[in-house]
Amino acid sequence: MSAQPTILVVDDERELADLYAMWVGEDYEVVTAYDGTTALERMSDAIDIVLLDRHMPDITGDRVLEEIRAAGYDCWVIMVTAVDPGLDIVELDLDDYVTKPVTRAQLTRIIENLRVQSRYGGGDRRELESISNKMETLEDEHSVEELTETEGYQRLESELQDLSDSLIEEGDG
User: Keywords assigned by UniProt (predicted)?
Assistant: First the structure.
């Protein structure tokens, strides 16, 4: 990893991609892609964080995410999208999900939180944070009463409990 982490900004709205790139460009190296195909071409081991739009005309953000994971890249992925989250995010191998519009402060805070986690946590802590972020995102859009009735949310709750228990056991060891 270089001194400055590298962020790949992917959004088919050029103005938005350029705005995000400008916001994070002072503190990070930035690579920009205006479609999914270019994002996959520019993806490399040098990329530490991906800011990924979900709806793009050529390849969806979900598909780009699948390709990134299938290729074995171990980067943080933050979905930044106008698509309200549904229970389908339970299945996505992402680290956070943010609904547009997003502010510079929000984006910077999310990135910094992920960087802190990467310094102090291993794979289990990362997975714990990912599950927690998904639950928080869903709770922002739906009532907890609604969510607790769904299989996907119940699975997240169970995974969160199991991971929490295992991390507590590791701490006692």
Answer: DNA-binding, Phosphoprotein, Transcription, Transcription regulation, Two-component regulatory system
Quick: pLDDT tens for 91-108.
Answer: 888 888 888 999 999 999
Residue whose token pair is 């530490």: 48
Per-residue tokens: 104: 């510079």
Copy the structure tokens of residue 49. Answer: 């964080």
Domains of the chain in start order, with CATH, are 6-121 (3.40.50.2300)
What DSSP assignment string belongs to 64-112?
A: HHHHHHHTT---EEEEEESSPP-GGGGGS--SEEEESS--HHHHHHHHH
- The contacts of residue 105 (CB under 8 Å, 6+ apart) are none
What's this model's pTM, rounded to 2 decimal places? Answer: 0.73
The pLDDT of residue 2: 45
What backbone phi and psi angles, to 5 degrees, belong to 36? -65, -40
